[in-house]
Amino acid sequence: MDFQVVVLAGGVSKKLLPLVSHELPNALLPVANRPVLSYVVELLELSNLKDLIVVVEGKDTALNVGAWISGAYADRLHVEVAAVPEDVGTAGAIRAIARHLYAKDILIVSGDLVSDVPIGAVAATHRRHDAVVTALLCNTPVSGPLESVSSGGKDKAKKPGRYDLIGLDPTKQFLLHIATGAEVEKDLRIQKSILRSVGQVEIRADLMDAHLYAFKRSVLLEVLDQNGEFHSLKHDVLPYLVRSQLKSEVLLNGTPQAEENGTEKVISQSNQQMLSQILANASEPTFHLRHELSTNGSDSVRRTHKCCVYIAGSNKYCARLNSLQAYNDINRDVIGEASHLSGYSFSSHNNIIDPTAELGAKTTVGPHCMLGEGSQMGDKCSVKRSVIGRHCRIGANVKVVNSVVMNHVTIGDGCSIQGSVICSNVQLQERATLKDCQVGAGYMVTAGSDCKGEVLTKK
Amino acid sequence: MKDQSNSSKQQKPKLTKAERRELQEAQRAAKAAAKGEGNKASATATSANARPAKAVKPAQKSDNASVAATEKKGGDFPHEKDRKKDVPQPRLQYDDKSRVEKAKRRSVVKQTEARNRVELFRHLPQYEHGSQLPDLEAKFFDLYPMHPAVYKVGLQYISGDISGGNDRCIAMLQAFQEAIKDYKVPPEKSLGRDLTAKIGSYVSFLIECRPLSISMGNAIRFLKSQIAKLPLTLSESEAKTSLQADIERFISEKIVLANKVIVKHAVTKIRDGDVLLTYGSSLAVEMILLHAHELGKQFRVVIVDSRPKLRGQQLLRRLVEKGLNCTYTHINGVSYIMHEVSRVFLGAESILSNGTVYSRVGTASVAMVAHAARVPVIVCCEAYKFHERVQLDSICSNELGDPEVISNVPGRMDVNHLNGWADIENLQLLNLIYDAMPSDYVSMIVTDYGMVPPTSVPVIVREYGREQVWI
User: Fold this and answer.
1) What CATH number was assigned to the domain covering residues B97-116+125-258?
2) What is the pTM of this model?
3) What ipTM was assigned to the predicted interfaces of this complex?
């Protein structure tokens, strides 16, 4: 259908710092024991999109990601992994791979999106309106407890702006205004021309930009070329396109169609005008057309372009893994309410226990839990709402509540882990108590230590 | 194909023996022609043989029910060699369960039947309108053989972004132009047959999105005849550019130029001091009014509008912007305002062979009131919308719209008496889209072939409707 898909898998982000590292980039961070990138790839595969370009920051990270992808999806998909230098931002990433893009429309998906929204619907909306950009909006996820404690430092005053302010037209099809988290503190500026043409703008704070965009390729590349300082798609390119939708300066049709094929296809100028007038008078002229027609008479032709939205249904799940809090939430959701996303089948107790996992005597694994392969649990343990990775050795009398434990972790007897994230290859000695902590990879927590809300990493 | 026509014949009242014999002869002739056709490597040059081959080809495709409906909706002109075309096949009647089941299995768009269907209109398709668009959108990437431009047009039909005979026709033809441009002949197949089959599949998809209008049926027939007439010596790219040029010429001559000619004829009927009435929003009428205003004639316009679409408001906006003196009223006030009116200009969706004018619902009422008040009614319609069908009422063939839009008034939340109408078993909502106006009400028809009385329509269809004379 003339669409190309680009997955922006990022690199090693600072916001997820104790969890990600050089060996474990953003994209491969495990959610419910699957790398988060696999959710995006599966979603695309479900929609029959088998040709992907995955963009990763940093050469080594790219090799890492590429190795995993070819291991997991070699036969089913055709994936090209492109490496871009670090810190170029999403706009820079697109600039770097511009020469690989040839289709009429590009679908840009962020690699940390966990969702089950049908991508075909976004693409269809994009095509139907002949839009320049279509964004996917979903309901803002309700964040769990421990909101700002885990975000490094005791900076309680700075609340991360996790919501966007979105301005929609009355029919909820067009995007009139978008302001992302950080700018929300300042005043809101809306173009008067837009307000005048549409008449009614609905500003919503409960919708979130899911970072899944469908762009018209020629327009996107043109905007990126002309504005070299644009760093991020979401913060720069999208607001620019939305602001300028009634005063469009982008050339909508690529090369001008002055040349014909040399047959007698001669259409007089007036015929062409009338034809476009007929089509413009079609049933429901959008406010773009009304604006265009009303400014007739001025010598410069006002062109407009359309920015559309697709609002995901409320029964669809959509979340982005861009902070530690989100990591905890998504893990909980994927084994909890959004369990259809995880792709595993649940046992009768509503949890997933791998057949090779061993449970000791009197060990309970509660509902909404996951136990990876080869893990061993000692006696009298209790696991509630947690994810435990592969090949873990967990001693006796251990309580794991609301946490994520990755692979190859050794937990001594009598430990108690609550609301924490423990990365791979960590060793917890006896009677360690962790509450709302993040333990980086390869760390060793000494026996009897009692940590609350700390980030423990190897120096 | 013959089984189908036989089973469908059983629905109609029994034909006389002579008619049945005639039908059988014609079918035998068609079969012999098709067999002779199949022996040759590619489509023959003579259009006579190509026509049965072309007609048989789409029928032999898997989704033949709807395509046959399209084919035969236009009917075919009597040709010396194939008399079976004299009797057009009946369209798919939606109260025939087995054929509906067959069509549904092949369909691309998932349709759910509407609840509370009106008994009188059971033969027309009636589907729930809410679920079609999201369902089709979700399948966007699954429908690989469908060309994106055609898919886009289908989406626009379902969502109502494009409605109105001319607009739908132009959008469809432009989508076909793009599809032809991207078309590549598969190896060992002839361009003519394969392209015709592909166009047939696109058409059946569009029918599922929204039933074809008569003008669209004529345009499709034109396109298929042009494909059939392609000389074999042309290379693929030459054939494609020739077809694209033909479509372009069709649009510019039959629609754009035709409207200009209509305007030129009709402005002579407008005198200073006239009060002109129009209903809804018709392109031809709008152009006439604007042109007359440019020529400096002094007249007033009364625009009559009706729910649920309220198309007249857009016409009103455009006329007022140009400075015309307008009055706006709804159809319940038409008998009051008719006393002031000196002429009525109406647009049409199609004009049938007995002079019946088939247009938006409400037009017939306006014409009847005008007739009672002895006001001349002038219908403006391009000739490509004429059809040789005869229709006596607006029931046997019509289109049913979404009943939800009748039950609520946009912007008036307090008018909610019909909320939950679907649960009430003996309440059925009917939203007819078209109605048929008898020829007695029409004083004159302005077409691009001149100003003619309604009795001249079959003449125009016969003389100028042959495919040799299309362009």
Assistant:
1) 1.20.120.420
2) 0.76
3) 0.74
